[in-house]
């Protein structure tokens, strides 16, 4: 079922360039960018055709094992776009930007986050890893600096001294995480995507994203688990 | 293999560092026979999909850069803030060099930057170590060409536009910028 793919125009190229340099782009920003690109390069613009616009780019990115992917933020449920490398089997996207030591710290932090109950790792726990690194032991102060860079570069996000994976990281590494943390990584029962932060049913153990919980229980009189029907014990966000 | 090379080039270019042929051979291509074919195809893909042009800036040492081939756009979507500020400083320096006949001595450049309250010794609020930014980063990225002036003691240097600046900026753009500043 092959349809002739639409041609790339400079508007598509410009959109792609900006998306790549942003790292991650929020939904409304992406829509504004779509309009800007079409206007700058004098391409026909239709405000509801962003998905088609992106599909065109994706059809050209496919042979390069790349893709513009949409992900939902676990904090506010808003859509974000990132350019993802599908051929990656490791955190190779980051490999060129960070040293071996930094990468090891990141991987260990990611372990802590994914293995945690609530998707967060405390700053204390992460800094304690500093002198356990195999590559080279570093001081807590240095580790703190590295964490700051990860937050600036949008691989981690920080809230109240605790760290979780940034939406960008989740979009870019979802496949990597699902395959490497197969038994531990949770999938949301509602949207079936990877869930780092989640609420978990005390009875049957299924997990759901907080925005998904909010949406799902909005329509319910009594919050009950969609799988085992037990009363939902967590506070509805 | 073309797709691997495309990704390799994109990643390398993210840091605006020139890419050497030896690096491409070692990391991606592994075959000098196939080299030209793969590089050409990668170049066409980069142009077609990303609007980037693969340009050889040193034909002796075979180093390449990617330049943006899209018509320059107005507006705030160009780059992140810190980049924008660095580019602003760079444009000022390029303009100065251009207005002074395409080549200036380091002492003249720093005298000019002092007027803008940018000092080589002091940490700048935005740029940090400015001397490092100008003599190290901008030179490595091939925006500036810094060459020692022979028979000077202590060695003085002359600053000119580097090959990346030549390709990415037109002198027309620089004139427009200078006109705006005046």
From TrEMBL, chain A:
User: InterPro entries annotated for this entry?
Assistant: Nse1 (IPR011513), Nse1_RING_C4HC3-type (IPR014857), WH-like_DNA-bd_sf (IPR036388), Znf_RING (IPR001841), Znf_RING/FYVE/PHD (IPR013083)
| Reactions listed under catalytic activity | S-ubiquitinyl-[E2 ubiquitin-conjugating enzyme]-L-cysteine + [acceptor protein]-L-lysine = [E2 ubiquitin-conjugating enzyme]-L-cysteine + N(6)-ubiquitinyl-[acceptor protein]-L-lysine
**GO cellular component annotations of the record:** chromosome, telomeric region; nucleus; Smc5-Smc6 complex
Protein location:
Chromosome, Telomere; Nucleus
* Record-stated family: Belongs to the NSE1 family.
How is the subunit organization of this protein annotated in UniProt?
Answer: Component of the Smc5-Smc6 complex.
Q: What is this protein called?
A: Non-structural maintenance of chromosomes element 1 homolog
Automatic annotation (TrEMBL), chain B:
Quote the PANTHER family the UniProt record gives.
MELANOMA-ASSOCIATED ANTIGEN MAGE ANTIGEN, NSE3 HOMOLOG, SMC5-SMC6 COMPLEX COMPONENT
**Where would I find the MAGE domain in this sequence?**
1-182
Its Gene Ontology cellular component terms are:
nucleus
Q: Name one Pfam family in it.
A: MAGE
| Annotated transmembrane regions | none
Protein name per UniProt: NSE3 protein
Please name the source species: Gymnorhina tibicen
